[in-house]
Amino acid sequence: MSTGFDWEHEFRRCYERACERYQQGDRHPVAWFDSTQQAFLRSIGVRPHELLDYAEDAPELSYGDALLIVAVRREFFLHIQCGQWCESVVPLETFPPKDAALAGWVWLPRIVAKARARLRGVLPPELMYGCGGDRAFLRRVGMHPADFLRLVWQAGNDDHAVVRRLPVTTQGPTASKP
């Protein structure tokens, strides 16, 4: 199992397998990986359905984007969660609606909740951190999904700390959807 220096190489193999299987029409990510690959993904805090999300959104969400997001999750998993896996996920109905706003930023409450769940590895399979709506919001604030994930990590449970740390942009908060 590659959880040290070379983990990225094994992750790339899993990512490429996911893209290949997705392009072939297979939508069952658990079956994409053998037991060794599944153990590897688990060892870095990644669920197979997350690779389905990346494959589905490629090439707009590139391998490099996926790698950076996974690297933040891996770091949180190994150093904050001490490699302890959580079997449960946050119920889908507890996430803020898409039109919820915080400090004038529509989508912000939703993406913050998704980022927290992604960090902890408890995002339900029906949601994706880094989906099209997330990417539209992040483009508006001028941030990469991995950078936003780190911002949320640093802010802890303080939503207003996230707001205060958003880059100043010319677009500013808006009531429109991403």
Tell me about this structure:
With 178 residues, this protein is an all-alpha fold. The chain has two domains: 85 residues; 91 residues, no CATH class. It is 53% helix and 2% strand. The chain contains eight helices and two strands. Helix 1 packs across helix 3. The protein is globular. 30% of the residues are buried.
List keywords for this structure.
single chain; about 180 residues; mainly alpha; globular
Write out the strand line-up for the largest beta sheet, numbering strands in chain order: 1-2
Overall pLDDT metric: 92
From the N-terminal CA to the C-terminal CA, the straight-line distance is 40 Å
Number of domains: 2
Strand content: under 5%
The coarse silhouette is globular
**Main β-sheet, in a few words?**
2 strands, antiparallel
Tally of helical runs: 8
- Series of H and E elements: HHHHEEHHHH
Low-confidence stretches: none
| Count of extended strands | 2
Structural Rg: 16 Å
Q: What percentage of residues falls in helices of 4 or more residues?
A: 40-55%
Category from helices, strands and their pairing: mainly alpha
